[in-house]
Design brief:
With 223 residues, the chain is α/β, with parallel strands linked by helices. The chain has one domain: Aldolase class I (TIM Barrel, Alpha-Beta Barrel), CATH 3.20.20. Helix content is 38%, strand content 21%. It has 9 helices and 8 strands. An 8-stranded parallel beta sheet has the order 7-6-5-4-3-2-1-8. The longest helix has 16 residues. It is globular. Bound molecules: 1,3,4-trihydroxy-5-OXO-cyclohexanecarboxylic acid.
Length: 223
Amino acid sequence: MDFEEFVLTASLTDLDAEARARDHADAVEFRMDLADDPLAALDDYDGELPVLATNRASWEGGEAEDDEARLAELAEAAELACVGAVDVELKSLTASDGERVAERARRTGTTVVASVHDFERTPPKQDLRGHLDAATERADLGKLAVTAESRGDVLDLLAVTHEYAAAGERVATMAMGAPGRHSRAVAPVYGSKIGYAPVDPEDATAPGQYDLETLAGLVERLS
Ligand SMILES: O=C1C[C@@](O)(C(=O)O)C[C@@H](O)[C@@H]1O
């Protein structure tokens, strides 16, 4: 997965749902931290869509508690043929074993996404740039999910997304929460390369997500 074009991913906690995502998604994000026995599920996977593997730490909004174990699992996932990309938190890449996951991914031609999440707010533009600089330096794509409290927050995020995309950097951005919901449809117009959506609305993996069919329709109409 090179993310040259926008990739709409269906966020799944159960890979069996891939068949239901195929009509609208380009890939699936497998939230390993929310799944039972994720490596066995990946071994058994015989779907058509490539997998972006995420094993989100509890300190970054996920459910994986044991950092060493979750990064070891993610490194194993990175080497599987069905996995086209792995998501590693920027903090893991800079401060823990995340770089080892990235090395193992690179050895097998798996793309590395460095992610940053802010579940509280949208930091000032200069900080948004700082996050994207650090993420794009260490990975093939820098992803930034913030929490919008106002339309102005979304404008800041979109402006910075546009700057980076126009400069040829590969980035994915989205504003979580209700005020930022429309960013999920609009950010791709400004160069964001990944969108996330659950197949069923009740399976959302972040606040403010549209369901997959809705987001696919919005993105298609706006592009
Ligand atoms: O990092 C992201 C983005 C996300 O948080 C969102 O806001 O859509 C959803 C997560 O599943 C994914 O890992």
